[in-house]
Fold:
Amino acid sequence: MKVTFKEGKTANLTGVNQTITYAGLLEGYPNKSLNDSIIKSAIEDAAIPFFYQRRDVVTTVITPEIQIEEVEVETFPFNGKNKVKKQVESLPSYKIVLMVDDYDRYGFIILFSNDFFNYELMKDKLSELNWKEVTQEYCW
Structure:
């Protein structure tokens, strides 16, 4: 699949890896600390599905739109009577890691979406990026 970048450069989309952002969350609410941790680990792990454990790759995170919602939480003592409203920040539902490649350069781009692999969103976001800023040369 071909994708086009800001300066008109066309490259191949050679890999897509999508996961749920809060998979495995057993309790509690998404918060800034958890969201920051998810973004940090996304950067560290971007290349693993493609290059296995290589950590020296250029990875670009398209800033996720953090949603802020007000939720009711129970406070101590937990008897159902002590509830307060609290603002919670949460990432969109899916983290998508894209690998782009033109045989000379490659890069990883992480974007977040509430839709399962939204192709139009991906095309729009990539068209805003500069190819040379988000990729690096292959070292053979």
